[in-house]
Amino acid sequence: MNNSSNKDQHYALDSSGNIRHIKDANPSNDEFFCLFCHRQMIAKQGKIRQWHFAHKALSPNCSYESYLHSLAKLLILQKLRSEQPFGVEIKVPFTCKNKETCIWYEDSFDESCNWTGYKNYDLKKFYNTFEVEAFYDNFRADILLSNSIKKLEFNL
């Protein structure tokens, strides 16, 4: 297969609303729809160009950037709704007060060692509800994470 434009759409929604990669598409058994505009797509699985999905009819309101944005939201949402953890790494300040036992402590330090490090958090331990294009006050979030049981507040 020849290289093609980097704007080829390799993902589409099947008739059940699942994200499908072009390699897993079976056009004889299913219909496919654009991730952004939801118009019907054709699975192009020929022998010359790289396999991809294409709109069946021209869609003037759909762009590659919109497609990528929709794909990212759907993949993140899929991961959040799966059984797997959804980890994020956050830069946080650390303070060590063990100067007597610390092999790294120097007399030039004050009473404690301060440094910045990274800490991992599984967002699914804090949030149990994930909504696409939901509103929070006057802000519309691509994906809104919330907790339906208790209100969470963080001081990181």
Using the alpha-carbon principal axes, give the shape.
elongated
Calculate Rg over CA atoms. Answer: 23 Å
Main beta-sheet strand count, sense and barrel state: 5 strands, antiparallel
Low-confidence blocks of residues: 1-6
Q: Approximately how much beta-strand content do the residues carry?
A: 25-35%
User: What would you call the structural class?
Assistant: mainly beta
Overall pLDDT score? 84
Distance, first to last CA: 50 Å
> How many individual helices?
1
What is the H/E order? Answer: EEEEEHEEEE
Strand order of the largest sheet: 2-1-3-4-5
- What's the count of strands? 9
Helix % is: 10-25%
Descriptive labels:
single chain; two-stranded antiparallel sheet; disordered N terminus; mainly beta; 1 helix; 156 residues; 12% helix; five-stranded antiparallel sheet
Topology:
Layout: E1 11-14, E2 19-21, E3 32-33, E4 40-44, E5 52-55, H1 64-81, E6 87-96, E7 113-122, E8 129-136, E9 139-146
Antiparallel strand pairs: 1-2, 1-3, 3-4, 4-5, 6-7, 8-9
Please provide a brief summary of the model.
The protein is mainly beta and 156 residues long. It contains one helix and nine strands; from the N terminus they run E-E-E-E-E-H-E-E-E-E. The strands form three sheets. Strands 2-1-3-4-5 form a five-stranded antiparallel beta sheet, covered by helices on one side. It has a two-stranded antiparallel sheet with strand order 6-7.
Report what the structure shows.
This protein has 156 residues and is mostly beta strands. Among the domains are: 71 residues, no CATH class; 35 residues, no CATH class. 12% of the residues lie in helices and 35% in strands. It has one helix and nine strands, in the order βββββαββββ. The strands form three sheets. The chain has a five-stranded antiparallel β-sheet, covered by helices on one side. The chain starts with 10 loop residues before the first strand and ends in a 10-residue tail after the last strand.
